[in-house]
Amino acid sequence: MHELILHHYPTSPFAEKARLMLGFKGLAWRSVTIPALMPKPDLVALTGGYRKTPVLQVGADIYCDTALIARRLDAEKATPPLFPDAQAFTAASFAQWADNQLFLRAVSLVFQPESAALRFARLPPEVAKAFMADRGALFSGGSATRVPLEVAQGEWPTLMGRLARQLERQDGDFLFGAPSVADFAVAHCLWFLQGTPVTAPLVDGYPAVAAWLGRVLGFGHGAHSPLEAEEALAIAREATPAPLPEHPVALPGIEPGQRVAVAATDYGVDPVEGDLVYAGEEELVVRREDPRAGVVHVHVPRLGFRVEAR
């Protein structure tokens, strides 16, 4: 069995979501630190173009997007589940909302001038400028649009009030009773806001939410150890992709084995090209070959990704 390898960097909110899910599962993993900005040649050698953080590697299988990474972690270790049976639809749908709508509002709040100045205070001005330019490119060409700061500020009390009431009225210590992917999808947005004293009160001002966030962060990150990018590439190169899942679900207009490009529809729309070897209810799998990574299977969610024939 191959080790779990997370390609991430410390300040990425979505990477924090993945790290917390690994901690919740009690899984051991290897840590490859990637650049926060493009270019990311070692990561792209594995993904074929997908640039967002984090990416989970299991041998020669590469999992993109934390929505799919969560499902892969449930497959790795069934208990405790990220998608509890009775709440699977609710948790997945709520997590999708948080990863999109709540996150975009958190981004606007985090990068307001006063907060951004603190975040970039220890960086040379040219690095801060490069970061903002990189994030501008990340949002180019997709359906996601930046939420104006005044809109995010105006909506925030409503969103936090709803979360507080959900927690106060719910049996148990988490959003839907038992912990689920929904908790981690909300938590990483609020963890992001707690990064500076400018935005921390937007979380800490809601005691029930802050207490819940403390419980989620308390799961920690699990046991992990560093791994060099070249070692991760060698692992992929020497491994064989896992057998494909059963029960394919047809993709209209695309035949199995057809050459395709798959890309996120919201932001970070860099395409991954290869042969579509599997389309399922939740995931798409693209086979590609790279001189450094060898033959890999790149897994992306079916929801939120488009497929085009090549």
What does this entry look like structurally?
The protein has 310 residues and is an alpha/beta fold. The protein is 43% helix and 18% strand. Helix 1 runs parallel beside helix 3 (66-76), helix 4 (88-110) packs parallel to helix 8 and helix 7 (149-169) packs across helix 10 (207-217). The longest helix has 23 residues, at 88-110. It comes from Pseudomonas mangiferae. This is Glutathione S-transferase family protein. Pfam families: GST_C_2, GST_N_3.
In total, how many beta strands? Answer: 10
Could you give a short account of the major beta sheet?
A: 10 strands, mixed
Share in helix: 40-55%
Number of helical elements: 11
Work out the count of structural domains: 2
How do the helices and strands follow one another from N- to C-terminus? EHEHEEHHHHHHHHEHEEEEE
**In CATH, what is the class of the largest domain?**
Alpha Beta
Strand order of the largest sheet: 5-2-1-3-4-9-8-7-6-10
Radius of gyration: 19 Å
Low-confidence stretches: none
Measured by DSSP, the beta-strand proportion falls in 15-25%
CATH topology of the largest domain: Glutaredoxin
Class derived from helix and strand content: alpha/beta
